[in-house]
Amino acid sequence: MEQPHHSEAERTESRSSVTHGVRKLLPKNFLLRLQKTGQVLPSARQLVHAANIFSKRERQILATCFALITASVIWLGVNQVSAHLTADPATGGTYQEALVGQPRFLNPVFAGAQAVDVDLTRLIFSGLFRYDKNLKPVPDLTASYSISDDGRSYTVVLRDDVLWHDNEPLTIDDVVFTYESLTDPDLRSPLGATFRGVVIERVDDHTIRFTLKEPYTGFLDALTVGIIPQHIWGSIPTTQWRLADFNIRPVGSGPWQFASLNQDRDGFIKSYSLTQADSLPNTGYLDRLVFKFFADEPSAIQALKNHSVDGFALLSSDGLKELSHGEGGFTHYDLRLPAVSAVFFNLGQSGPLTTLAIRQALDMAIDRRALVLDALLGEATVSTGPLPATLINNDIKDSPHFDKAAAEKLLDQSGWKRDGDVRKNKKGEPLNVTLTVIDRDPDRTAGQFIQAAWQAIGVSTKIDLISPATPTNVQRSVLRPRAYQALLYTIVYGAWTDPYPFWHSSQRVDPGLNLSLFSNDAADKAIETIRRAQDDATASKSYEALRNAIDDTVPAAFLYTPVRQYIISDDVRGIMVTKVASLADRFNDIASWYTKTNQRLTW
């Protein structure tokens, strides 16, 4: 575009206009002073008389400019300081958590049956070994240890610097006493089966030896059980142990010690306080833990939403719905348990489930991805085999995918023909299955999903809900007598994946947990090899053999590995929850948690 042309006269007139405008903006005597002295900035003496030089409007403008400059300098300074401030964890502070239930047996001999007891016992007691952040057993009360070449003998040397919370020394006699108590038939410890047949020997004042009948690779995991004080429990008759007040006011040797409890008029324990153990050097930042007990999950969730507690490990997907509507101020941590939820088919009962093709059809009729994503809101991981989805071994071999058409074809070929919505055999008998489900979520939701899937292929499915009012109710009425046709249940493996309690033929009756009553020679051989394996390659090959034997027989329909949500206030920091073998493992790194900070400048 052509630029407009201006004459020299026009440009001179323009410059003159600008100069005249600038002069109007400057103080009246400014140009005269500039011509005489060449001084642009006022001197200190002149500044004193600035009020006489500038007009009222000019003074207001200058004051405003000065205020803006001052504010800017302050703002920049604050930003610079803030950018170089580091918040370091500081000691002190309290963490409060909601628990559903009541503490009954804060005693490692009894604690395995109830989650609340396991949680608190883990904090109060210490064992010969403990789990590190990768769930590997590492020495705790142990100074040193050795394993014999044949893998049957474990010799452990005890540390000599450990005190009980009452300041009595912890000795090798306490260790021997604990393991003998675990195997005492009068005490009926949930952990007793683990040490059945193990010879326990006091070698000297600092050493204990465990001799096994057969090599067992996971034995160090068994030695993570907490040690109890002989000078307290040794004077109480075993028949009175379950009634002893020390079950609620325990004396342990762990990093946290009992401080106080608060009960209502009915004896319901409302809260329970722990403080860092006086007998140990300070190993963490928090100085107090407070556990508040609630009768049910909705009450615990409400306390969390009201900020009456700092944290809660959700029990169900219903709880997640309660906290998924824009609740701020909390962080959700995924706790992926080494567990498998499955429908176990009772092969010990007569009926249609003794037919392999029917079990295969029921297995193929379940869309596991839809179950996890839609019914369980993504709070699980699809599992297609007997091992948890958290293990690499679970992906050794893919199981059949969801295939409704193939499932219906199998039923047709087995002589179960469609008659409306239900299939019948040649005798006109309907194909009925009763699915036993514990009346809680996510089990209840998953059970309804499976019922719909089976009914969609013509299998009349009834759900039998079992009250989970007490853990013993499920044990007594369902698991021990194997009183079910098909059972939806979750088996938890622990830190070391030992399939023996769940799949070895010797565990088909109580107290074993072979819930399908599965019996297979190839599977038994593989399991026994896994327990003896001294290297990963041997174990992996045996896991594959076990998987093949189970896939060929279909004793269960494997569904998912559950994920539990641990919800904690953002005021609590330093949490590094990674792997868990049980919910109690969420406290494995509690020494790094903190609620208070010290500010430090770093440049």
From TrEMBL:
Composition bias type Basic and acidic residues, residue spans: 1-14
The entry's keywords: Signal, Transport
Cellular component terms per the entry's GO annotation: ATP-binding cassette (ABC) transporter complex; periplasmic space
Entry's Gene Ontology BP terms: peptide transport
Domain of life: Bacteria
GO function terms (MF aspect): peptide transmembrane transporter activity
Entries under Pfam families matching the protein: SBP_bac_5 (PF00496)
Residue ranges of the region described as Disordered: 1-20
InterPro entries in alphabetical order: Peptide/Ni-bd (IPR030678), SBP_5 (IPR039424), SBP_5_dom (IPR000914)
UniProt domain Solute-binding protein family: residue ranges: 136-502
Protein family (similarity comment): Belongs to the bacterial solute-binding protein 5 family.
Protein's recorded name: Solute-binding protein family 5 domain-containing protein
Organism: Candidatus Uhrbacteria bacterium CG10_big_fil_rev_8_21_14_0_10_48_11
Taxonomic lineage from the root: Bacteria, Candidatus Uhriibacteriota
